[in-house]
Structure formats: C-alpha cells, structure tokens
Amino acid sequence: LLVRGGPAGREDIAHYTMKLATGSDSSIYMTGRFGFARSEDGGRTRNSLGIPRRHCHGLAISPHDPRIIFVGTSTAQDPTESDELPGGRILRSLDRGLSWDEVGSGFPAGADTSVHDFAFDAQDQARVYVCTASHEFGLPPTATALGVFTSADGGETWVEANGGLTTTEVEALATSPEMSGVVYAGTEDGLFRSDDAGSRW
Questions:
Q1: How far apart are CA 76 and CA 85, in angstroms?
Q2: Number of H helices, E strands in the chain
Q3: Which parts of 121-201 are beta strand (E)?
Q4: CB-based contact 128:154 (threshold 8 Å)
Q5: Which stretches of 16-127 are assigned E, i.e. beta strand?
C-alpha cells in the first residue's frame, strides 16, 4: 500500500512524514510537514483533523486512554502554512483528534523550536514527557533546542527537566513499560536515562 503525498496537493501531509502512531482501535495517526491526519481503513485514505495547516512533528497516543493525543508543532517551514500557531506548540486532543486545545503552561510556547517527541509514563497516567530540538532543512531553520519538559497533570503544566543532560538537543523519548519514572532521552550526545521522572539524568 502506497500513500502518496507532495507539495502540489492540498492533502499532502504524507509528504515528509514525521511520526506515525496506531490507536487501540487500529486507527493510524500521522504528523507531517503540513499537518496531522487519521486513517481508519488501514491507511488507504486519511482525513485531516482539527489542526490548521502547520509543520507538525511530535505525536503520541496515551496508553491509558486512546482518546488522548498529543501533537507538537515546529517553526513554520513553508509559506503556505497557517500563521495561527507560530513557533513550537503543544497541542492536546481529548477526542481522538477531532478537536484540539493548546496546553502547556510553563512551556515556552511559540519558541523557535521543534517539539520533537512525547512519551507517557506506563504506570502514572498523568505523567507526560516532551522533548525539543533544532533542525535545518534548507528552509528557515529552527534555532533553539529547549531539551526535555515533564508534566505531572496530563499536560496542563510543564516544568523543565534537563538536570544532568549535556545537551538540549533531544530527538526522542521512551519510557519503561514496567517501572514508573524511568525515562530515556536520545540526544546528539548519546542516550541518557532518568530514574526519577526527569529530575536528574
């Protein structure tokens, strides 16, 4: 099965796909250079949902509640993008992507960064992690990497969690499937581990 995408089309989220995730109902979610989409037929067709035409990167579905989805945006990379949500933002849906709200008190919303990845604690359903990085595509680059932030209330508020990291260029996150508070960060300096929910790496 091939899902085509490209800058010439209006439904071109598949062009430069960033992240893929599957829900417990077998839905497939995707972020890309031009937005967010969901497929409910194995990827044969996809629907753009709720988010304006924006460079979207990070994507995660809560393992505790498949209705909860987080998406992260990046600094605009294309002149056709909406200017509704400039810079890096954290967006959350509570209804499988039908509607979205910006969340993230404590996170510097609108910063010139890319919200790269999210991870959920396997045991604590309110604990969420997010990481940021800079990047260059030959288009306007994002200049700032802010590292890792963590939320203890489902994404409503965030605190910086970079103690012990040697860089704020963090590309990927993963949590232990068995132990609460254990999280891994993939950085340009290598792999880091925290055993206390990001307080120290």
A1: 9
A2: 0, 15
A3: 128-133, 148-151, 159-160, 170-175, 183-187, 190-194
A4: yes
A5: 17-22, 28-32, 35-39, 47-48, 56-61, 69-73, 90-93, 101-103, 114-120
What pTM value is reported for the model? 0.85
User: Residue 65: what residue type?
Assistant: D
d(CA 199, CA 64): 23
Identify which has the larger pLDDT, 6 or 61.
61
SS3 44: coil
Cα Rg, the chain, nearest whole Å: 16
pLDDT single digits (tens) 68-82: 999 998 877 666 666
Which amino acid is it at 73?
A: T
∠ Cα 131 91 45 (to 5°): 105
Q: What is the token pair recorded at 96?
A: 């499988």
User: In this structure, which amino acid lies at residue 106?
Assistant: G
Query: What is the signed CA dihedral for 188, 194, 197, 198, rounded to 10 degrees?
Result: -40
